[in-house]
Design brief:
- The complex is a heterotrimer of chains A (584), B (277) and C (215).
- Chain A is an all-alpha fold and 584 residues long.
- Chain A has 16 helices and two strands.
- In chain A, strand 1 (253-254) and strand 2 (257-258) form a beta hairpin.
- A two-stranded antiparallel sheet of chain A has the order 1-2.
- In chain A, helix 2 (27-57) runs parallel beside helix 5, helix 3 packs parallel to helix 4 and helix 4 crosses helix 8 (266-300).
- Chain A is globular and about 85 Å long.
- In chain B, the strands form two sheets. Chain B has a five-stranded mixed β-sheet. A five-stranded mixed β-sheet of chain B has the order 4-10-9-6-7.
- In chain B, strand 1 and strand 2 (141-146) form a beta hairpin.
- In chain B, 42% of the residues are buried.
- Chain C has helices at 42-72, 84-107, 111-141, 150-178, 183-213.
- With 215 residues, chain C is mostly helical.
- The chains are: A mainly alpha (584), B alpha+beta (277), C mainly alpha (215).
Chain lengths: 584, 277, 215
Amino acid sequence: MSSHAHSVHHAEAPKGFIRHYIFSLDHKIIGTQYILLGLSAVTIGMILSVLMRIHLGWPNAHIWGFANGIMTPEDYLRTVTMHGTLMVFFVLTTVPQSGFGNYFLPIQIGAPDMAFPRINMLSFWVTFLAMIVLLAAAFVPGGAPISGWTAYAPLSSIGEIAGPGQGLGQTLWVVSIALFCGASLMSGLNFLATTIDLRAKGLSLMRMPLTVWGWFITACLAVLAFGVLLAACILVLLDRLAYTSFFIPGGLSVSGQLLNHSGGSPLLYQHLFWFFGHPEVYIAILPGMGIISHVLSTFSRKPVFGYKAMVYSLSAIGFLSFTVWGHHMFISGMSPYSAIAFSVLTLVIGVPSAIKTFNWLGTLWGGRIQFTAAMLFAIGFVSLFVTGGLSGIFLAQPALDLYLHDTYYVIGHFHLIMGVAAIFAMFAASYFWFPKMFGRHMNETLGKIHFWCTFVGVYSIFMPMHYLGYEGDARRYSSTEAVHYMTEMHAVYLFISIAAIITATAQLFFYWNFFSSWIKGKKADQNPWHGTTLEWSVPTPVPHDNFGGKLPIIYRGPYEYSVPGMADDYVPQHLAPELVARAK
Amino acid sequence: MGLRKSCSGSAAPAVLLAIVLLILVGSTLYFHIAKTWWFPPAITPVGHEIDQQFMITLVATGIVFVLAQVALAYLVYAYRDHGQKARFVRGSHTLEVIWTTATLIIFVGLGVMAQHAWGQVHFGGPAPGALQVEVTGQQFVWNFRYAGPDGQFGKLNPKLIDASVGNPLGLDPNDPSSKDDIVSPDLYVPVGRPIELLIRSQDVIHSFFVRELRVKQDALPGLVIPIHFTTTTTGDFEITCNQLCGSNHYHMHAMMHVMSDADFEKWEQQQEAQNAQ
Amino acid sequence: MPQTIVTEELEITGRSGGAKPPSSSGGEGDDGSSGGSALPQRVYVTGITIGMGAILMFFMALVSAFIVRKGVSNDWRAFDLPRILWLNTLILLASSASIIHARRRLAKDDREGFHQWWAITTVLGLFFLAGQLIAWRQMVAAGLYVATNPSSSFFYVLTASHGLHLLGGIFALLYVGWLRLHKLTLSTATEVASLYWHFMDGLWVFLFLILLLGR
């Protein structure tokens, strides 16, 4: 039995608090740092969304934190911008990939650490800096920008003349996103190199857990997409600070003042932005898909149904995600002929997504389903993914997008499929891996209460938004008062606001559970869920040197549950064949 | 196995999940069938075609939605852990092929069907003799310009833009064809006649949207984007801005008045009389 | 439905008694078989390859912006590229040749020759950067600033982005040249640095052609 002796490059845990917990090179600490960063970002983002909902539900309500307690139209748009930016970049992009991925990818592939620990640390701290710069935008003169997370030019590139917050606030926003791009590129590079070169002996590609596949494909997308956003950010910054005209056309008269630009193309910005932006939404959801497959299989006590189909569909989604960006631009003035190509490609990307859904249902079919909190969130994910995905079939058709574009229908669609579904994957991952990360269980009862409140809550918030969309209600409106048909819908706005406040409050169950379990949760065993993958082969909590100097050997696929003829209903990947107990 | 004890033996979560999913399906079906909140009636032939495409898509995706959610509810209930052994199944090649082909046909089929309505809106120009109206978005108002009796739009000069002297578009007074141009804060169009809107913006991106037309078009600075339609009903309809354009985005609102030919002519004459003063 | 279900035979055969080496011939590429040692050297080559892919995407975004921006408006004014760019290009090409030579010396275990040629490469790289700065000075002297025209904007953006990436390459050259590594590590380090250096070279030739032909 070859027990690969090896010299780990930093087998000894570093001494001292700073080196151990702050500027750590350990992928587990960095992963945890990312998760905590995301937790603070999601907290701020969620509070901002509640403020928006209070304002929309009760337009005259005094809201703490705003001058005279009044949320002005620009305050509302600042809130929209910060909510979107924090959630998309610092939560959805960061936590499932850089957070959980950092922590578990090296362990699941049997590596002592990421390929480049220093780059890993740098990625985190640059992300941290990016978030500080973003939050700083809220405190500079003029305040945070009002141009939304998409920051369309020329609104975002002509400076403060475009509106409050479009001065220094918008500049800081662009700098923050540029920093974030750099961090994501480094992080993606690290994930790819690690997965390609550091897999344990025997871990062929088709034996990798689907989580690893999710992180791997996501890293491919990140490496190819973030450079494009970085380029767009640099050009916007030059338009703003050096008075170039990349995105600003000539003859613009803003607030009665003639601008000295000529010939720029606002559509060019949109092409660059969405060339990044569409892969970005898959960056947010692909790791979640991997996590959900993993959790569903474990708690159904069955192999993932159609493992290879899962891998191929994941790869197909990754590839196709670079060909569909134009579906964000059907009404932008882009060539109506290219809209047809983008439309068909977008509908085609629905096929691998449907394959995944069917295979998740197939995984449940014939299983022995254990309703842990993690499993409940995974099942919830499947439901949300179906609902949010099907509304995408409407939006993918340019003829229907003519009506639905930029209405609440779109808000309902992308929150369900990208926002909430990814958040459900993060919750599933938290309940599932918490014991491994912190050596203690989260409270299952609190977890289940949290699930029920959240599951019912998010549907109550986002389903009615589709109906607002049918009525044609526009998104990013700080008030419905100017439009008669929007005012008529006030009851629905009010319902959504109440649902949002309740759902947001219910998240306290999670915060309480997370932090109290960290300190005094029930102690966890090495393999509490009877899982098969490598993270369950290492001690709990995971020691600084993951495998204690003895890298594992992989003998089989990742989801060997309920194998006939075996004594246990799970056969770990690393267990040598002669050690597998057979049923008597 | 301690796990089995703690996580199973109870059908409660399975029943509860099934109930929640069925409520979701039931309420969604109800609101779509009762049309509690729905599109206002379309006022153009293209609008009706788009509505039809919407209904086809709704039925197709609705069936998938109901089947998938009910299947999920059934599976979590039927296969909850009550001590049975899980089936050892890795997958099914046949099933993968079936559902891949089926979804491909449904999704792409819908996409292909939808192209006709899209073509109606965007391919080809308006019928000859269409009334041209120039639509200009600016922070935070719409302006609608008619060429007037000479049928020619006057030159615009951005340097002359000054709303306070009543020249929000920067009409060049030195251009003779600009003298009779009508500029109106609301859109007036005659019913039954082909209309071509020339959509532009003089600052940031806006988006022209009238629900009843079923058409939305971004107003892009630096470009003039035409859209065309022919209405079948008279009435007053709201015009909104649908692309975030600044603080008062929500307030960028105008009306579209679809009038009989006679009323429209009367309005045009009034405007010209005002211009002459 | 049940009859359509495929149940594969589990891969645990255990027949051979001893630990059968896990199959790695899945046709799905590498199985990470050297996972037993510390960081395998090839991870650095993998890393730089991916990095170059990411950098290429960044420049492709800028170049496609260049092409679109030029085509979309009639305000594009062509200008004569500073002549010194030709010289700079030659210098950079020469540096690629010298880095190849340096690696050959290293392969023949001629440390001294290696360090000489490596230093020559570094100096040529610095000359290139200096030449680019002179080109900028000439642009400014001709009254062409960043915001003068989209053509000059793109000139500055492309040369500056490339220059910064090349500066990174120079730091890598200095780092590798200064370190006294044992042979295996040095071979990898020079391979990684030279891959990146050739990439910077090729990228510059590409950008130069774009600037030249796309004026």
